[in-house]
Sequence to fold (559 residues):
Amino acid sequence: MTTFDPDNPLIVQGDHTVLVEVGSSKYKQARDELSRFAELVKSPEHIHTYRITPLSVWNACAAGVLAAEITGALVGYSKYPVPEHILTGINDFADRYGRVSLTRENQGLLLSIDDPALAEEISLSKQVAPLLARRLSQKQFLVLPLNRGKIKQALIKIGYPAEDMAGYSAGETTSFTIRDFTLSGNRFSFRPYQQQAADTFYAGGEARGGSGVIVLPCGAGKTIIGIACMNQLQASTLILTTNVTASRQWKAELMDKTSLGDDLIGEYSGAKKEIKPVTIATYQIMTYRPDKEGDFLHLGLFDQRDWGLIIYDEVHMLPAPVFQITAGLQAKRRLGLTATLVREDGKEEDVFALIGPKKVDVPWKEMEGQGWIAKASCCEIRLPLPDDIRMPYAVANRRTKFRISSENPAKTDVVMRILQRHKTAQTLIIGLYVDQLKKISEALDIPLITGKTPQKQRDELFYQFKTGEISMLAVSKVANFAVDLPDASVAIQISGTFGSRQEEAQRLGRILRPKSDGGRAYFYTIVSRDTVEQDFALKRQLFLCEQGYEYHIAQGNNL
Fold:
């Protein structure tokens, strides 16, 4: 008979939610286990709530976590007996992973199902039936290659994720080597976890490898892992990024750490349209069309070369048109890179089906403990609305309430006091509203980068910041993703995008690269107290709380 420890932090409930007592001495261990197979729902001060879903279990299975490990963790850390149907349900979810597979045989692309009755049920599904070309036997169906992605989407929606072992085309050969020394003369090699992530993705060239998502914290070197995967394949590669700044950083890293030269690396953006053995494009250009009814003019890039690998940087930002074209690119190896699989549009299932399952997910705190990313302190500073805007706030609709509270003019004074505390630090001031950022920029006499800042000027300001020529930058959402600012150690968030969890993670990520002096990073969020902004701030913090970060709450007048 199992004996339950009253200090255990978990209360597993019958609706597949798990309550976690933060005050327990076993909280951190239990949280680290939960994050492997459950999703954080909310995290107020004392009791956090997780939810176990089929997708969270399937991602765990794809990453090599066994059902017995999941149920063992729940039982081992539970304060009370775990409902039997929860344990049974987890085993059922896990059992569904791998029952349906895609393979390539002499006849063509085959869908194989491990049980005749299940095969009958799936073949009669309204979502799947139109995608089956012909029945070959009780348990096998022929599928047209162009439907390879669509059938995986349909199968996951009916609860049976397909394990895709149909293999991939090799693509054009693009040979290069990894430098022992960077262009600046520093010794270079892949960190152990970077090489391990690439090995897991490649899987020795077997069909089980070649598609999936690698989840690592900002600052851990996801670009370097992309290069390590390219090194495994030595094939023509298309890299998709969030913006031109990120594209140029990819190119700089490739040239710095590999033998690939400018003649082999192309930029495909609004400014240039180069198609070379390694081509780096932005999501923005890929989804451009002259009007809402027009064609996407640049999606043809996917067919311009025989790509051996497609890398989706910041895969949680993947736009719908690129999802659609990816459904038809299942014979290409596909690598997704991200710091968080959280998507605000809820399309995590499409990432699983079309890019691939999560292959690697290293907790942020584990990376911090090993010294690969900087230790970070998070602080939420709450301050009241000034009297003269309390009435306009009171009578406004919810969206306008959010903007009024986000643009609270009293935040400027708080920013100045934070800067006094970190006088010599490289500091980013990050916000959502450009007018608010302009006022801060003018008050502090510091440069501002927004979506309207010309690319040349952006690149110059980022360069000046990286070299220490300037120590402060005000930035809008354009700096949320893939901006490499290794010496930034303080970020002050003066406004954010409603309850966007991935944005909060990305903004903290701007300051997590290890510091040359081993110093700590500081992340401040300034919110208006007792407003909708405070409510949304709690939602934004969810993902980081799951990763083990705690927000110290300070009142503006006590800073």
